[in-house]
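[Automated response] Your request has been received and processed.

Submitted sequence:
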Amino acid sequence: MSKLLLIGGGGYVGTALTRHFLKKQHEVVSIDRFIYDNRESIINFKGHKNYQVINGDFSDYELLDSIIDGVDNVVILGGLVGDPITKKYPKTSEEINDISIKRCIDYFDDKNIQKLIFISTCSNYGLIPDNVLAGEDYELRPLSLYSRAKVSNEKYLLSKKGKVKYSGVILRFATAFGLSERMRFDLTISQFTKEMFTKKELIVFDENTWRPYCHVNDFARLIELVFKSKKELIDFEIFNAGGNENNYTKKMIVEALLEKIPNCQIHYDQNDSDPRNYRVDFSKVKQYLNFEPMYDLNYGIDELLAEFEKGKYIDLIENSTKYGNYELNYSID
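Generated structure:
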């Protein structure tokens, strides 16, 4: 059993990681400011003997001092996640995603931890030709405040190599899908499923653009593999986090959904405000860590439809902002 510190552990991926590692009998400490007013996401974990949650700023050294004792591994997930929310709150994005993250990384310079994982994004690749797969060495072309901050923080963490005791690791996440205690319906697979199930209609922009996808449970499995891996395999390495079989166009997702929810009205349009188009090569994470996803697009759709059929998320239409990164309850903008 080890002690894991999750920076931003109350979010969509953070709660999935919490569930995974508590089941594995690890001790989980979560710091989260709950900037989306999403405190309900941790209700199922409260009272667990191996779980502790702290509502606060992850760049507050006094707060970090109060919980660092015995921590073996750290995962930095925190921040404003996604292009739309960072565009909406640019000052808050700079404060949290850039300044606070770097300050948080600095805190661990002289700490006795084993591994520090920084969660980055495949959005860093931006816009690439359709016939190209972007490996970790592919030129980064961040197109948003969100991805530019991720690229900056990647470089900052890499600059620590040889200067700190821990092994730093960067995971460039594919677009997440799957059920989570802090469910989001502003991500492609869950959004499309929701629209087609509830409205029987969907508007899709730029249907032939590519993105990689990965289930939140697979992210948890990968992070566990990193923790278990020998230093020489992962020390200050960058890994695309996902699997080649989960690169999809938006149209592929729609076609998979139509097999399960027929008779929906699909409207295709062009020139969305989001120009990103990228397919990603996940060969390195397979080679180094023997990681391959267990969950594919159809699994993610089926599990979500099963929850809809049971009446879960019944407040989705009336309280839609609850299920995504739409509004902050904290902002300096």
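Summary generated for your ticket: The radius of gyration is 19 Å. The longest helix spans residues 90-107.
If you did not submit this request, please reply to this message.
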